Amino acid sequence: xxCTRCGYENExxxxxxTSCGAPLTMTAQQDxxxxxxxxxxxxxxxxxxxxxxxxxxxxIRSVSAACVDWxxxxxxxxxxxxxxSAEGRPDPGYNHRYGKDDP
Length: 103
Known about the structure:
mainly alpha, globular
């Protein structure tokens, strides 16, 4: 099944594009319900889940990334890189991977 967003050719049974994360076969209403369920599983909060999905690009990658960022703010030690905590210095690839400017 070809993704309408990026043109990537996915397996026929795929629900989301392997390349960009866009939904492949669901209607917008079904897609939003799935993304809300995902965000609520991450956050444990229906209200926070709605905020995340409404502010996202409505694809699984952007919702997941927003949820992880939300969790990271709530518990900064949870995502601390093992090398960072052992050596006391930040992961050099973090800013590049998450699109942040270098300090």
